[in-house]
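Colleagues,

For the teaching module next term, I've prepared a clean inverse folding example: a structure given as tokens, and then the sequence designed for it. I'd like students to try predicting residues themselves before seeing the answer, so please don't circulate the second half yet.
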């Protein structure tokens, strides 16, 4: 699976404030697929298949789970964002009441997928069966405080997995290898215009070399390899790129410090170096993953 150029919806007003539902849809329809090469690379390395019982922490709108389920894996996803989780349910199984479906259900998806809302302790596996793979595809190390809730979630998940289970953490690669880092700097600059200046959770910051290793150490995990994956961000036009990038939440602090229209204007200007003659936007990026064992 490769990134695709995503068109802006006809008639969309990119200057209007986005509600939670709109932003979740922008994430699911525009931005999430940019990480598909990362999902595929991790699943290839982990040989994800019918024997895999995966817990996805911060599963978002479920694309990574959908890819794993298509390989035959049994997947459980947890996310605290209700809007993204609703989209994940629609993707994985639109039938009502499927979360509590029994293991003997005749519907294949009912046997392979669960989605649960929560920001606390990790859920026990379906039918009490232990997990053998835990994934965190929400990139770590690109926003202030983005791992604070993750570490306790990982600690609560480890006892629910088999001994020696694999945990995969992901994050942005070095800023010099990520064209999007230059655009994300707009988020930090505009957030700094707040008076008085303040650093708050969710504010973008450059990725540090040992971000993933730091989370692994605090969660009591043992690193056991790593990899890098090319994840170019491709958009059909600047409007789609702006909507996709703002759906990540990395510009929220900037919006609070200024306003959404100002952020959209400056992000669009920062995208100009990456706009091609046909109007499409293309930004090469590298993402990194860390393989750990419990």
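(Answer key — instructors only)
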């Amino acid at each position: 699976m490769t990134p695709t150029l995503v068109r802006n919806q006809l008639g969309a007003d990119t200057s209007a404030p986005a509600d939670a539902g709109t932003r979740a849809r922008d994430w699911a329809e525009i931005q999430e697929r940019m990480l598909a090469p990362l999902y595929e690379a991790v699943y290839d390395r982990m040989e994800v298949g019918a024997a895999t019982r995966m817990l996805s922490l911060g599963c978002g709108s479920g694309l990574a789970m959908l890819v794993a389920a298509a390989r035959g894996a049994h997947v459980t996803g947890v996310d605290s964002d209700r809007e993204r989780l609703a989209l994940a349910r629609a993707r994985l199984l639109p039938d009502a009441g499927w979360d509590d479906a029994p293991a003997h259900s005749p519907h294949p998806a009912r046997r392979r997928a669960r989605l649960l809302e929560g920001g606390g302790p990790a859920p026990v596996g379906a039918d009490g069966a232990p997990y053998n793979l835990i994934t965190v595809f929400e990139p770590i190390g690109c926003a202030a405080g983005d791992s604070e809730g993750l570490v306790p979630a990982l600690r609560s998940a480890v006892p629910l997995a088999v001994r020696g289970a694999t945990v995969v953490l992901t994050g942005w690669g070095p800023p010099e290898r990520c064209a999007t880092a230059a655009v994300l700097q707009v988020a930090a600059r505009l957030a700094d215009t707040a008076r008085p200046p303040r650093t708050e959770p969710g504010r973008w910051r450059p990725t540090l070399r040992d971000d993933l290793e730091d989370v692994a150490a605090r969660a009591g995990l043992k690193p056991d390899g790593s990899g890098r994956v090319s994840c170019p961000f491709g958009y059909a036009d600047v409007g789609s790129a702006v909507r996709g990038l703002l759906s990540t939440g990395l510009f929220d602090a900037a919006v609070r410090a200024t306003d959404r229209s100002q952020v959209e204007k400056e992000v669009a200007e920062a995208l100009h170096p990456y706009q091609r003659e046909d109007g499409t936007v293309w930004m090469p990026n590298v993402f990194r993953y860390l393989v750990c064992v419990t």
